[in-house]
Design brief:
By secondary structure, the protein is an alpha+beta fold. It is built from 1 helix and 3 strands, in the order βββα. It has a 3-stranded antiparallel beta sheet. A hairpin with a 4-residue loop joins β2 and β3. The longest helix is centred in the middle third of the chain and has 40 residues. It is rod-shaped and about 65 Å long.
Length: 60
């Protein structure tokens, strides 16, 4: 962990050397997955807020 060492087109991650293009694409894919999950969570929160507003309007 901590500092990453690079040598040529490879990145060493404590175990085997991983080609940098593969390490980059894995990181990019992880970021995409995290963004999709965050977007889904945000949409759920927005939906809950809309439902709460609808209930408040009914009671006023």
């Amino acid at each position: 962990m901590g500092r990453r060492e690079t040598a040529g087109p490879f990145r060493f991650t404590g175990g085997d050397a991983v080609p940098m293009y593969r390490a980059y694409s894995e990181k990019t894919e992880k970021n995409r997955t995290e963004r999709k999950a965050m977007r889904a969570e945000t949409l759920n929160i927005v939906d809950e807020i809309r439902q709460a507003i609808t209930l408040l309007r009914r009671h006023l």
